[in-house]
Amino acid sequence: xxxxxxxxxxxxxxxxxxxxxxxxxxxxxxxxxxxxxxxxxxxxxxxxxxxxxxxxxxxxxxxxxxxxxxxxxxxxxxxxxxxxxxxxxxxxxxxxxxxxxxxxxxxxxxxxxxxxxxxxxxxxx
Length: 125
What we know:
By secondary structure, this protein is of the alpha+beta class. It has two domains: 3-55, Multidrug-efflux Transporter Regulator, Chain: A, Domain 2, CATH 1.10.1660.10; 65-120, Arc Repressor Mutant, subunit A. Helix content is 57%, strand content 15%. The radius of gyration is 19 Å and the shape is elongated.
């Protein structure tokens, strides 16, 4: 399957210019003649490469934020709700909630059960 620049922009949640810069820097994607004219198209492997490139960078940038490492360590130690987590790591509840929102996009290991208890990793049921 081949992806257009617009499709990759939507899938990767990145600006088309950012993907085009990655095309120039990493030589991913090729120009193809289509019925609509010449288009820059990307293969499935190139999509996976760009996905890994952008998301690993996002994860690294997120880990630099104050409180993210403490949240991960606290939730790995023992699951808890947002209120207890905020008291445990000594941050305001609003800061913890905003960090959790940004973390849920990047960390698939972060989960919450129906009672509002947060886990990092997989909960044992």
